[in-house]
Amino acid sequence: MRDPRIWITVVGLALGGWLISSQLSGGPRSLPVTQDELADAVFLCRESGELFAGKVRPTPALHPITGKETLLPALYCPKCQQWEAAPALEQQQRAAMVLKCAKTKAALERTGPVPETATRI
Ligand SMILES: [Zn+2]
What are the backbone angles phi and psi of residue 51, rounded to the nearest 5°? Predict the structure, then answer.
């Protein structure tokens, strides 16, 4: 094991492997995400119950008319076919659980048909 060529080979293989793996993992995800590529989300005002549709943003988000932080993320219930208030995104991630409809116990979805009555924000 005194032969330095062995170590040069080992270092070379490790470096090559690192280069390949960093190339693979750093592919499309390294591109910046523009506003247009962000998914639309539906929000529910916790005071008025109004629905809003717009780009994903931190919640509670600003209500465009009252200027108060009352917009919470809404989740779509495929059974009730309506949007329901969801806990703040931060809480959802911490809980790491499937959110269910309080009425039907159906799993709520983050995407669904954006209601025509929703205000664009
Ligand atoms: Zn439901």
Answer: -105, 145
Tokens of 27: 């592919």
pLDDT digits (tens, 9 = 90+) for 46-86: 999 999 999 989 989 999 999 999 999 899 999 999 998 87
3-class secondary structure, 117:
coil
* Burial group, residue 80, by CB count within 10 angstroms (0-12, 13-18, 19+): middle
Distance between Cα 95 and ligand 1 center (Å): 20
Distance 10 CA to ligand 1 centre (A): 58
User: What residues have a C-beta under 5 A from ligand 1, the ion?
Assistant: 77, 79-80, 101, 103-104
